Amino acid sequence: MPVTPTYPGVYVEEIPSGVRTITGVSTSITAFIGRALKGQLDEPIRIQNFGDFVRQFGGLWNHSTMSYAVQQYFLNGGQDAIIIRVHKGATNAKLTIGSLKLEAASPGSWGKNLRSAVNYNTRKNDDGTEDPKLFNLTIQELEAPGSDKVAATETLRNLSTDQDSARFYKKVIEQESSLVNVPENEPDITTRPDDTKFKDKTQELDYAKADVATGSDGEDITDREICDPGLEADRKGLYALDKADLFNLLCIPPLTRKQDDKADVTKETWAKAAKYCKNKRAFLIVDPPSDWKKISQAVSKVDDLRDAIGTDLATNAAIYFPRLKMADPLKENRTEEFAPCGAIAGIFARTDSQRGIWKAPAGIEASVVGVRELSYKMTDGENGQLNPLGVNCVRNFPVYGNVLWGARTLAGADQLASEWKYVPVRRLALYLEESLYRGTQWVVFEPNDEPLWSQIRLNIGSFMNNLFKQGAFQGKTPKEAYFVKCDSETTTQYDIDRGIVNIVIGFAPLKPAEFVILKFQQIARESAT
Questions:
Q1: What is the DSSP-derived secondary structure letter of residue 151?
Q2: What is the pTM of this model?
């Protein structure tokens, strides 16, 4: 605020500098959509390691391709993931303790491993008497049916049957328990459930077990559970990501473990996912269909896939061939075939953290961890057929092992001549768009004149210059690498009258050196005379 002088003397006034630091967003938060053993449904749950996935979603499960993709993601360098669990017909296990009826916190047969007990060792009234409305509830999850090994235990103390109490049992269970819920529309109990006491001599609680006739994993999911038209309004399936603040990569693993076309994500779903990624400034990793067994099949069918997605949407997608053969911990580590999306996303994340988003996630550093062999081992000539079509290859080389050997978007076919031909160029643009979109929100409702324009140039220019120093752009000088324009030329009086400020930003992207050509020539020397 300006100082109002009222007495003779010196006044101190602080003047805002106009500097508003723009922070770059994360580049490799990966969203996974699929089936899981347990966990919340249609909610974007963020995890930082595979241990988090085990705790919240049950870990590896033979019917969940997503669980293997998440494991491969973190194995290959992933650091941040968002999990969306979907199902088809799964039901919650039921648990009854006297008058108290409970159900597993999420659908699935895992709820059959729950058991619970009640005791009256509660806090006393002020006069030292027992409160007849209070009880303690203990819930345990066993590691396996019939096992005595406990995987998790929760104890909720001093629950009350009094609706006016701060410890009303329904509210406490709803907000504090991760194992059970009170079924929806279940009438309130008015008397506390019976004390299950202790077993004779052992001093162990006598637990009531879940009804084994309830709790089902449902059937194999289909594309309808991922992006059915009705899901968008309810923000379920793919559209549950609307509830997430940010994601950069999207993986939709095959629908089942079967190696046939029924397990493949359909072209229509890939098209919807690519459109969603385009709107969210994210990037889609497409798995090769199960019938791409040979190079000839990939060459003949990639155009159909690209046409189904649409060339304009294909700029935000990339496909990798072939599939990977890895050890399956659930099958005595025997070799099984897996779609590559999880491992690819992990390599994206690893490259981003080590080199930057402007570095192509390919080359001898882009090794695929945990792969025993590839479902198809190709030659240089076969690689030369796929690369011009915009299909990225996973190759095996002596010494280097299995590495990614391509960095083109699905719109990167030579004939398309797209400006978004390369993965790092497209992802860098998405990164700039999202970072500047979030970093310029302060501009809204500011006076639209030269002081604002100069602040915009200063702040965006500082952000771009920092990226230039890190090596994100071409050019020897900032002037060659980028420009930020916001003045009376970009924003005319007509724009000002309509409340618009126009900012024009240009950058010279680094493009990967796909082809290294070595030229050799013999030196002809004259003989000495």
A1: E
A2: 0.92
